[in-house]
Design brief:
The protein has helices at about 55, 440-445; strands spanning about 5-15, 50, 75-80, 85-90, 95, 100, 105, 125-135, 150-155, 165-175, 180-190, 195-205, 220, 230, 240-250, 255-270, 275-295, 295-315, 320, 330, 335-350, 355-370, 385-405, 410-425, 450-465, 465-475. With about 475 residues, it is mostly beta strands. The strands form five sheets. A 14-stranded antiparallel beta sheet has the order 1-10-11-12-15-16-17-18-21-22-23-24-25-26, with no helix packed on it.
Length: about 475
């Protein structure tokens, strides 16, 4: 028997009338119309695929997983995991092998099983743009990866049309999907003048275990000490997530400063394809973004900090109690603390009509603690298992690119990036010395420094308005992560 899933999405938006006022009356002089025309510019690096705000609207009600918005993009597939944490795959490479940026932040999954990948930290309702570099990634789009690059951006600030107006608008949405009783809601509100903008975006989604089309197992208890699962019910697929974001924008002539605050709370998320489940994931971030337009080109920078507290254990559909002669073991609690700080700067310099130069630098300081509390029994007691103690992974990168429009049909781009990656960690310990002796690890020199070089050379031929061909060469390098 085939089971059908029904989806219902409701979106309401409203814009309050602009409030205008005038202290004095002025004579109004109507100017003649001026028409400006020109040829659209498609500079390198050009993403292989992308989704703008209009393209994203039709996909948001289909899933609560931001990575699922990438379905259908050539070269991209997904590793299904939890309800909001699937992993994008580009040409067989996934996870830390890809460079994934959210509003300019290089986010890192603070979990041994990578249950909290970068795209899980932004709600689908708050995404305004997704770009994918599935082929050769230019050095200006990020290093320390051997796969492609995915860039996600949240909604940009909106401003009133002039100094005499106040913009106030909002959006309310809700959805329901019958399979798993998935439901959720989102709210967005904006209040802005011509040079200041305040926007709040919040969303929540929740789902029970989803059902398969037919029975694929016998109905019964999920485990010896757990509840009941129907024959067509897929265990450990329930989830709940809540996201809040506050964006303050300040505009002055050709300069824009943004302050983005974000909070995420995931009380639980089941993983049917892993031994553990996520029982808590809380993240807080602050991001300062500046964009400036000058006579010589553009300048942008991002300064951010993101902290994550993550917890794993056996969820409601996995066996929790493990009896043994030395006493029962109650689950296997695992906790992770991640602290991610970064700074990136980038400038585009228009030297002349042919040559465009990009230069920039990145700094990232990452700290990670991963520890497992004792849970009884002989195997997992009496100490706290310290898996990673003050893990350190710091990156320092600089890059330069040269883009040249040789003719109206030929464009080339050459780039080089150098990154220094420094890694270290403090002493660790096991549950006990019988099952794990950390002496060899603690006595070893754990510090490591890598100097990595990335190179790219890209050419594009556009023989007509209906055809474009890109080709190139790249050398990419990635240092190992802390896990």
């Amino acid at each position: 028997m085939k089971r059908t899933s029904l989806s219902l999405s409701i979106m309401l938006s409203f814009v309050l009338p602009s409030i205008a006022y005038a202290e004095h009356s002025h004579d109004v002089e109507e100017l003649e119309k001026v028409t400006v025309s020109g040829q659209a510019i498609h500079p390198l690096p050009q993403e292989s695929a992308g989704l703008d705000l209009e393209a994203l609207k039709s996909k948001r009600a289909q899933s609560s997983d931001t990575a699922s918005l990438l379905k259908g993009i050539p070269g991209v597939s997904l590793y299904g995991a939890g309800g909001v944490s699937s992993l994008p795959v580009i040409r067989g490479l996934a996870d830390d092998r890809l460079r994934i940026k959210v509003d300019g932040m290089d986010l890192i999954s603070a979990c041994a099983n990578h249950m909290n990948p970068p795209l899980s930290y932004i709600s689908p309702t708050n995404v305004s743009e997704l770009k994918v570099y599935s082929g050769i990634t230019p050095v200006s789009a990020g290093g320390d990866s051997i796969g492609g690059t995915i860039i996600a951006k949240s909604k940009q600030p909106e401003f009133a049309k002039d100094a005499d107006s106040v913009l106030s608008k909002g959006e309310i949405g809700a959805f329901y999907r019958s399979n798993g009783d998935a439901r959720g809601a989102n709210l967005s509100a904006t209040l802005a003048t011509d040079n200041f903008s305040l926007n709040y975006t919040g969303s929540t989604s929740k789902a029970n275990n989803y059902d398969a089309a037919n029975n694929f197992k016998a109905a019964g208890p999920a485990a010896s000490d757990r509840g009941w699962l129907d024959g067509d019910e897929v265990g450990s697929t329930a989830y709940e997530t809540r996201n809040h974001a506050l964006n303050l924008g300040f505009k002055l002539d050709n300069h824009l400063l943004q302050v983005k605050l974000a909070h995420q709370d995931i009380p639980y998320q089941g993983f049917p394809n892993q031994r553990m489940d996520m029982l808590e994931n809380r993240s807080n971030s602050i991001n300062f973004i500046y964009n400036g337009l000058f006579d010589w080109g553009t300048f942008e920078t991002s300064l951010y900090r993101e902290k994550t507290h993550h917890k794993m254990d056996f969820g409601d559909d996995k066996q929790f109690l493990y009896p043994s002669m030395a006493g029962p073991a109650f689950g296997m609690p695992m906790e992770t603390e991640g602290d991610n700080r970064g700074l990136s700067v980038k400038a585009e310099i228009n030297a002349n009509e042919r040559d465009l130069y990009r230069i920039g630098a990145d700094i990232q300081r990452y700290r990670l603690d991963d520890y497992w509390e004792a849970s009884g029994g002989m195997m997992m007691s009496p100490n706290t298992f310290i898996n990673i103690n003050n893990g350190q992974r710091d990156r320092y990168g600089v890059f330069a690119e040269w883009e040249a429009d040789w003719t109206s049909k030929w464009t080339t781009l050459a780039g080089i990036r150098h990154e220094t990656v420094k890694m270290d960690a403090d002493d660790v310990q096991g549950y006990n010395s019988t099952n794990y002796d950390p002496t060899a690890f603690n006595n070893a020199d754990r510090s490591q420094t890598d100097n990595n070089i990335d190179l790219t050379l890209i050419g594009r031929l556009t023989p007509s308005d209906n055809a474009s061909y890109e080709f190139g060469y790249a050398q990419k390098t990635r240092s190992p992560n802390l896990y």
